[in-house]
Write a structure and sequence with these properties.
One of its GO terms (biological process) is positive regulation of cilium assembly. Pfam families: BTB_2. This protein has eight helices and six strands; from the N terminus they run H-H-E-E-H-H-E-H-H-H-E-H-E-E. It has about 210 residues and is α+β, with helices and mostly antiparallel strands. The protein has two domains: about 100 residues, Potassium Channel Kv1.1, Chain A (2-Layer Sandwich); about 55 residues, 2-Layer Sandwich (Alpha-Beta Plaits). The strands form two sheets. A three-stranded mixed beta sheet has the order 2-1-3. It is rod-shaped and about 100 Å long.
Length: about 210
């Protein structure tokens, strides 16, 4: 019976020991260690803490030495065969949580790297930014509104000249005379006018209230 109890206690100690390694953060010394990364021939110097901001990232797993046996160069820097141009913004994102890009730097390039290093929050930020950009580029094309106004020949020039802002003269259709008596024989016209309607950001069409005067 004594031996059973001993074994049981050993098992428990084993389990407790195992749990402790997860719960207790590593000593301050190992946390603040500097890490050198050689990305495509450019050396970056950073801390473990920075690299491990995003726990699931390739960089965090790399510097924890988990299952990733990465080659190192002669200075001991981890060798990563990726483009160093895009690594700077990625490292800065891990440092301060903001995406800062030079104006000539393509967001697609950063997205590619963020996906390679598996940095979830950064991937989301870039995709949002790219969608916003697409949205502004592909602004809703203007809709055209057409109106048909009926008028007589003598009113025509006056109507065209007093047409309000934004209305454009499209077509004139002669529909002949509507009066068959007397010499008041005025030719009638259908006048087609159009206007562009732009969708404003709140989804409502903006259109000035004043209409073409007839």
């Amino acid at each position: 019976g004594v031996r059973m109890r001993m074994e049981g206690r050993e098992e428990m100690q084993g389990a407790v020991g195992l749990r402790c390694t997860w719960d207790i953060p590593p000593p301050a010394g190992s946390q603040a260690k500097w890490v050198r990364l050689n990305v495509g021939g450019t050396v970056f110097l950073t801390t473990r803490q920075t690299l491990c901001r995003e726990q699931k990232s390739f960089l965090c797993r790399l510097c924890q030495g988990e299952e990733l046996q990465s080659d190192r160069d002669e200075t001991g820097a981890y060798l990563i065969d990726r483009d160093p141009t895009y690594f700077g913004p990625i490292l800065n994102f891990l440092r301060h949580g903001k995406l800062v890009l030079d104006k000539d730097m393509a967001e697609e390039g950063i997205l590619e790297e963020a996906e390679f290093y598996n940095i979830g929050p950064l991937i989301r930020i870039i995709k949002d930014r790219m969608e916003e950009k697409d949205y502004t580029v592909t602004q809703v094309p203007p809709k055209h509104v057409y109106r048909v106004l009926q008028c007589q020949e003598e009113e025509l020039t006056q109507m065209v000249s007093t047409m309000s802002d934004g209305w454009r003269f499209e077509q004139l259709v002669n529909i002949g005379s509507s009066y068959n008596y007397g010499n008041e024989d005025q030719t009638e016209f259908l006048c087609v006018v159009s206007k562009e309607l732009y969708n404003s950001p709140n989804g409502l069409s903006s259109e000035p209230s004043h209409k073409a005067k007839v």
